[in-house]
Amino acid sequence: MKYSGIALKIAVVCTLYISVSRPIGAEESTRTEDSWTALPDDQSEDTSRGAAFAEHEVAAYDAAAPASSAEPLAIPSQFTFPDDARYDRIEKHDRMNTIFGIDVSHYTDSRLNLDDLKVKNVRFVYIKATQGTSSKDAKFGQFWDGMGKLDPAVKVPRGAYHFLSSTSPGKPQADAFVDYITLHGGIKTGDLPPVVDLEWDVTKKNPDQWIGHSADEIVAETLACLKEIETRTHRRPILYTAKSWWSDKTIPLSRVAAFKDYPIWIADYNPKRKLKEAPNVLPNTTTAIWQFSDAALIKGQVASYDTSVFYGTSDDFEKTFGLQ
């Protein structure tokens, strides 16, 4: 099978569970829901990751790939659950050892039917919780609580992620993230590891606020955030990023070894890499999952979704994400 040669390496995440009666990360906090400000629904502050990849990968990105419109993509541009999660268009047989999931945020339509996800072959869900030290995703509670209350017959693993802001230090951002999850019940046994999202920090006037910060500062603050999350949750966090973001203007690839202890959730939407199912990964790191689209569909559901894939068996998935 073509998967045997893929650049992804299955990550075994060292996950520590503490035998306590309350959820992991549930240290005392005086913060209330009103301590955070809801992120705006105005998407004018954002740029699509597809647009970012097209801009920053330059020659490596080819939005028209594959060259022939008759040539199918292994992961099609218009990926649709459940069909494309079950069937390999290239090899023309049911998929094996591929587990697909989505991530959601305040941009996601509130009508998303969580009870319908498992039957549509959505096998995991990550939910945006916070950004910076004082911004929350207003739909985190709806999706996090809703996923937690699903009947076991339709339940899929949930996880929370934090968008790392360039405007405040990493440790207080980690504390804000864990405090907000704790406010909604905390990370429980069976939940996915927490995630830190390190990428373009966009505003209307600035395509990336990380530019102007030194590589030493970005590395130090990202590590401070990751380490504090691990200290408080007893879970090794995952680092979400895109190789095309790494540069002499942010962090040069020569510094990637600083993150060797953290599994990587790589984002890469390049159609040619979807053709071969071989994303552009960070060197000398372990890639856990690959986000390949921000426009996947779910039959019978509204809107579109960021979508990722894990390569491995269900047992591999549970071991990698500490679900056993």
From TrEMBL:
A GO MF label: lysozyme activity
Protein name: Glycoside hydrolase
Any one Gene Ontology BP term: peptidoglycan catabolic process
Keywords tagged on the record: Glycosidase, Hydrolase
SMART domains for the chain: Glyco_25
Gene3D superfamilies in the record: Glycosidases
InterPro entries found in the cross-reference section: GH, Glyco_hydro_25, Glyco_hydro_fam25_subgr
SUPFAM superfamilies: (Trans)glycosidases
Ranges where the record places region Disordered: 29-49
